Amino acid sequence: MTGGRICLIVKTMVKLFLCEDEIVMRDGIKKHIDWEKEGIEFVGEASDGELAYPLILEQKPDILITDIKMPFMDGLELSGLVKKELPDIKIIILSGYDEFAYAQKAVSLGVTEYLLKPISPAKLKDSIRSVADKIEEERALEASETEWAKEEQAERLIIEKNRLFDALVMNDMSTSEVLDKAKELEIALTSKAYQITLISLTVAGASSDSFSESINRLKTELMSLYEERKEYVIFDKGINGLAVLTMADSDTEAGELTAGMAKEVQNILNKYSDLEYFIGVGGVVNRLSEIRNTYYDASRALARRFFADDNTEKIVFTVNAKDNKEAEPSDKAVDGKGRKGRFNIEPVLDAESPHKAMESFLRTGTLAEAEPILDSIFSAIGEQNINSLVFLNYLTMDIYLAMARFIKEIGADSTDIENECGDINELISASRSAAETKKYLKKYLRKVIELRDSTSAKKYSKLLGNAVKYIDENYANEDISLNKVAANVNISPNHFSSIFSQEMGKTFIEYLIGKRMEKAKELLMTTDMRSSEIAYTVGYKDPHYFSYTFKKTQGMTTREFRARGKASGEDK
Fold it and tell me: What pTM does this model have?
C-alpha cells in the first residue's frame, strides 16, 4: 500500500581510525578529544599505513585520520588503497609539507580535509566535527531518499502487478512474456496447480470506489500477511477488492491451501464490522494459460453476491475450472461456516430475483463478471423454466428492461448498442433458443457495462482534475501523501494510484516531485532566496534532501541552475 511517508532514522555513531607514526602526536589526538561527547567511536590506531590497512578493512571506519609521511606505507598510498575498498570513507590528512603537489595528489584521491602541522587540538576537533556532521547529513539524506524510493516502488509495484494479473486472465501475453514479467516482479509463477480467489469489499451505503479507511487498513493487513508466503500471490484490484492466486504441487494441495486461506481471510474480515464482503473461489487448473478459466469460475462464484440475502454464505466455491463446468466442491472445500460449499445457486423462488440481481450488478459489477452473472441467473432459474418459451421470453424482457432503465438512469444513449446487438423484439418474436437468447443478452450486457465505464471515465476525468488541483494547491505541505489526496477526492488510494498513473502518464510521487521542482526553479530565477529557504517553501523539511532531489531530477545543483539562468539573461 501507499501512503504518508514515515522516515525513521536510527542514529549510529561515526567510527574513526587514526594512523600516525609519531607516538606523541597519536596519543595527543587520541586522549585530548572526548570522542563519546562528539558522537564518535574511536575504533583503532596504527603507526604506519601497512599496519593500518588490514585493521581499516576490518573495522570499516567512517573517518580516517592519517599522517602523510610514514615509514613502510605513507598516507597518500594508504588513502588510495582504502578509497578503492571503502569509497564512502572520509579521509583527513595531516601533513608537515605545504607543497602543492601533495595537496593536488590528495584531492585526486578524494581526500576530504588536508590539514597542515602543527595543528591545535581545537582546530582538529572542529575539522573532525565538520566531517562527522557531513556524514550524518548524508545518512539522513540516504534514509530520506530510501523512504521516498520505497513509496514510489510500492506505488509502481501495485500497477505492475495489476498488469500481470490482467495478462494472466486475459491471455494476451505469451507464457514466456508472462514469466519474464513475473520474474521482474520477483514472483515465481511456475507451478503444477493454480487457483484464483476473488474478494469483493464494500462499505455499507457507500459507492464501490469511495475512499474507506477500513478497506485501506484491511488491504494493508492482508497484503502484509501474504506477501512473504510464496504459495500465494495477492493482487490489489482497486474497486473490485482483492484477487489471490494460489499455487501448489497438486490439485488437492491447491484446494486445501485455498480453503485455508479463504477461511483465514474471512476471520480477518469479520473484525471489520463496517465492511461487507463476498469471496468467490474458482476451480483448480494446471497451466498458466488456463488461469483465465479459474478466474472466470471465481467471477461466477462471486456473482452470487448479487442474489445475496442475510442468510447467504459469504464464501462460494467452484471446483472444475478446467472445462468451465459447474461442479460440486471437494470435501476439502469449506464455506464460511465450515460446511462444504456449493457453487450451484439455488433456484430463485420469486420472479423478482433476476432483475433485482441484474440491477445490483449494473451498478457495481465488472465487465469480467458480465457473462458469469447471466450464467448464474439462467442457472438459478432452472432448466425446466428455461425450456418454457413463455418464461424464457419473460426472463429475457425482464433483464433487457433492467438494462434499458439503467442506461436511461446514467444519462447515456443506447442507440449504438441497439444497432450492434439487434432489436430485442425481433429476438423474442423469432422464438430463439435459450442458448441464442443468452448469447444476445451477454453481448448486450457487455456493451452496457462498457457504456457505463466510459461514462464513469468522464467522472474520473473530473475527479483527476480535482486531485491535480489539490496537489497544485498543497504541494508545499510536507505531509501531503497519496492517501490524503485520495481521501480528498473520496476514492480508494490504490484505485486512485492506478487511474492517476494511467491518465497522467506518471505516478503520483513523480507528479508531486515535478511540481515542487518547477516551483523551485521559478524561485531560483526570480528571487534571492537561499536554497534552504526554497526547500522549505516547496515542501521539503530537509534542505539536503531537496538539494539531492534537485540535482537528481535537473542534472545540476541549485547554484549551477541559478548561475546558468543569470548567464543566459546577460546574453540576451
Answer: 0.58
